Amino acid sequence: MQGEERADRELLDAAALAGHLIPENSMFAFLAAHRAELFPDEDFAGLFPSGRGRPSIPASVMAAVLVLQTLHDYSDRETAEAVCFDVRWKAAIGAPLDYAGFDPSTLAYWRGRIAKSERPHRINEAIRTVVEQTGILAGRRRRAVDSTILADAVSTQDTVTQLISAVRRVAREVPGAAEQIAKVCTGHDYTVPGQPKIDWDDPAAKDALVSALVNDADALVAALRPEALSRTRIATFGVLCRDCPLRSRYTTSKTGRKLVLHERDALLRGARADWAADTGLRQDYMAHRPNVERAVAQVATFRGRRLKLRYRGVAKNHAWLKRRTAAVNLRTLIGKGLTRCGGAWALAT
Questions:
Q1: Cα dihedral value 294, 297, 298, 302, nearest 10
Q2: How far is the C-alpha of 263 from the C-alpha of 97, rounded, in Å?
Q3: Which of 102, 159, 246, 304 lies deepest, with the highest CB count within 10 Å?
Q4: Range with top average pLDDT, 7-16, 85-94, 136-145, 216-225
Q5: pLDDT digit string (tens) for 83-106?
Q6: Helix/strand/coil (H, E, C) string of the chain?
Q7: 269-288: average pLDDT
Q8: Within 10 Å of residue 73's Cβ, how many Cβ atoms?
Q9: What is the pLDDT of residue 153?
Q10: Cβ contacts of 28 within 8 Å, gap of 6 or more
Q11: Which class for 342: exposed (0-12), middle (13-18), buried (19 or more C-beta within 10 A)?
Q12: How far apart are CA 252 and CA 170, in angstroms?
């Protein structure tokens, strides 16, 4: 059966005895004061439909623990130790100073229960309700898709380096490529190592350089195109493989290598062409990309280091991402003065 928090405090209540030591605008202080309102027991009632058996840890307590765990990027064992030894965690969950905590497996048990329920992202939903009531995103929503949530932001200068390095590598390893590069690539002198000499503080100069390098790459691909990009999406290199010194690395076929293109290759080519031709698209991207990178950095890093996924499988890691974004959003709202006013959530600033 589901356990519920007691209305009265215990004699050695951590928040009562040491709550003044915890910063007022911290996640610990906020959860100590509002965890029951943020994660009410009735929102988790479906996890324990039976009224029999030993009462579970109260849902508001466990939800607060899961938020803190994800925010601090702790393992289950580290989380259980924090609940046992860290006064801030005890205060956040309403525990007494002598609370011994729980076994680390309890966290896995609760995550499994929530994952199998009808609302597997109920912690994220609770924070989303808070966001909607505060109105902080009114008229400011924008959908953004990033290639990966756990990747460092790639700067324009890094992109330039990658493009130039790729072309120079083709010149070194592909027979006859150096001559083709000198003929069709006009955006940069690829025989000279190092970064191009431009004003890196000028967005227009960086944009023009990237466009020129992309055009060079497209021109080089076209110049080195295999004998046939057919309707069956099979590229046949044929005799081009005959005298290639790297042939043993990529094919054992006597007739040369064959490459089957992706079924949406034409769509991908069209998107790249649109990107190169549409200045407005690039300007829109550059205007909003910094905000996306900032959000990605908040979710994907902790104290200056990259986070690593702790679970196996898409479903478990997707659930982690939902909890992580919920925790980060809640931390942001707390920093803006999140409070409870008249039975609803509001911002003091």
A1: -150
A2: 62
A3: 102
A4: 85-94
A5: 999 999 999 999 999 999 999 999
A6: CCCCCCCCCCCCEHHHHHHHHCCCCCHHHHHHHHHHHHCCHHHHHHHCCCCCCCCCCCHHHHHHHHHHHHHHCCCHHHHHHHHHHCHHHHHHCCCECCCCCCCCHHHHHHHHHHHCCCCCCHHHHHHHHHHHHHCCCCCCCCCCCCCCCCCCCCCHHHHHHHHHHHHHHHHHHCCCHHHHHHHHCCCCCCCCCCCCCCCCCCHHHHHHHHHHHHHHHHHHHHHCCCCEECCCCEEECHHHHCCCCCHHHHCCCCCCCEEECCCCHHHHHHHHHHHHHCHHHHHHHHHHHHHHHHHHHHHHEECCEECCCCCCCHHHHHHHHHHHHHHHHHHHHHHCCEEEECCEEEECC
A7: 82
A8: 15
A9: 32
A10: 22, 68, 88, 89, 91, 92
A11: exposed
A12: 21
Give the Cβ contact number of residue 220 at 10 Å. Answer: 22
Structure tokens given for 332: 């942001």
Output 141 or 93, whichever has higher pLDDT. 93
Distance CA 149, CA 300 (A): 6
Q: Which residue has the tokens 């081009």?
A: 240
Angstrom distance (rounded) from CA 60 to CA 32? 11
Q: Has residue 238 got a pLDDT over 70?
A: yes
Count other Cβ atoms within 10 Å, centred on residue 71.
17
Place of tokens 């919920």: 326
Copy the structure tokens of residue 58: 């109260």
* Tokens describing residue 289: 């990309």
